[in-house]
Amino acid sequence: MDLAQLRQRSAAEWEIPVQGGMRVPVVLYGSRQLLLDMDEKVREQACNVACLPGILQGSFVMPDGHWGYGFPIGGVAAFDPEEGVVSAGGVGFDISCGVRCLLLRVTAEDVRARREALAEALAGSIPAGVGSRSKLLVAGHVMDAMLRGGARWAVEHGYGRLEDLGRIEENGCHPHARPEFVSAVAKQRQEREVGTLGSGNHYLEVQRVGRIDAPALAAAFELREGDAVLSIHCGSRGMGHQIGTDFLARMAVDAGRRGLALPDRELACAPVGSELGQEYLGAMRAAVNCALANRQVLTHFVRQVFAHVLPEASVELLFDVSHNTCKEEEHVVAGRLRKVFVHRKGATRAFPPGHASLPSPLRGHGQPVLIGGSMGTGSYVLAGAAGNDQRAFSSACHGAGRSMSRHQALRRWRGQELVRELAERGILIRSPSMRGVAEEAPGAYKDLQAVVDAAEEAGLARKVARLEPMICIKG
């Protein structure tokens, strides 16, 4: 990115002032090097988002920002309920893709002693990859019940524990889901996908708690150096993709009928209060519940594996966060508390200490922010920072962010070679697709440490602990 077009606000905050059709400035978070490494398309897309009706305060880009569909990945934008719009491209195709972190209550050495057996058992129990099918058939009225109930539905059907729900956004269930606005095709695609990992950058990973950056926060999150945790990264699978496809087409037609001039067709949107806007929100919330149910069922499968292979483990939920959503939230805008619709695409909600929606054991410390890395470099746990409600509507980064396309990665790496190299470093990879492993090569991602350092420098979130990969199940 050409920094000459930016005004530097601080060491990790940059601005593109209002110009042309922009209604608000663009605010980008990141170090000088991260900004230099961002594709010029990120700047263009963020400026286009700043032109949308009813946008409030700014068009924000997180430190892991990169080019996406319409909105940049790592993009955040909030809209006025009366004058603003909702955009399917501002949520993305993998609705409610997110990360769930589970505390295992055993050490990494305990895992290492049985890692081969664990790797094989997890790979055998967790359906992963393109076209993977679940042990569950969810269809008809059961499908609609799952779309209304989310993780709560899963727990009620024996997949998990009641106490899990308090450690999930929305307490495991978005209350305003509308399954009737989800197409029959979308439902059909999901019938055999509840309890599957999917492909691409999705994974299930057993990790070692490495360096602790904030001892008091780590203690509050019950993270101890040398302990083992397990992270699950996946979303709403085929249903979310189909909902995105269905509504982007409808929004493009509707925008033309309304005479809504869009700087990019990929920014197709509808007024929040319109019939189409409300239908999309209802369907999107159903997909959020689908994703929450999916991660809950996968947690149940994980617990079954550990009960058999490492029964001394106690698999307990730290937190579950999504990073592809549009949520109605209360934020202070121009000195006044008001409801707004916050789009986070490849960005994580990161509520600060004291926020009323956080479970009481965590409320005084800030929301856990779970940052997915790559299978060779590690991940991070952050915490929402005090004062971040004044920055990007309490949002933070969601991962390392790609530095090269999947096609570029395929030309550079071979899956089998990566599996061998990582095994030599003590990281076991299990995947049905060596192509998928190559596409997700660690070298295809940005420097995770630089991304989380910038997030902390910008005041978005605080670093808590780094997580090092031990076993990775990939699609």
CATH superfamily: tRNA-splicing ligase RtcB
- Radius of gyration, Cα only, in angstroms? 21 Å
Please tell me what the overall shape is: globular
Q: What is the name of the CATH topology? A: tRNA-splicing ligase RtcB
CATH architecture classification name: Alpha-Beta Complex
Structural class, judged by helices and strands?
A: alpha+beta
For the termini, the CA-CA separation is 32 Å
Helical stretch count?
Answer: 14
Q: Largest sheet, described in full? A: 8 strands, mixed
Q: What proportion of the residues form beta strands (DSSP E)? A: 25-35%
Notable features of this structure?
single chain; 475 residues; alpha+beta; tRNA-splicing ligase RtcB; 8-stranded mixed sheet; 7-stranded mixed sheet; 19 strands; 33% helix; 27% strand
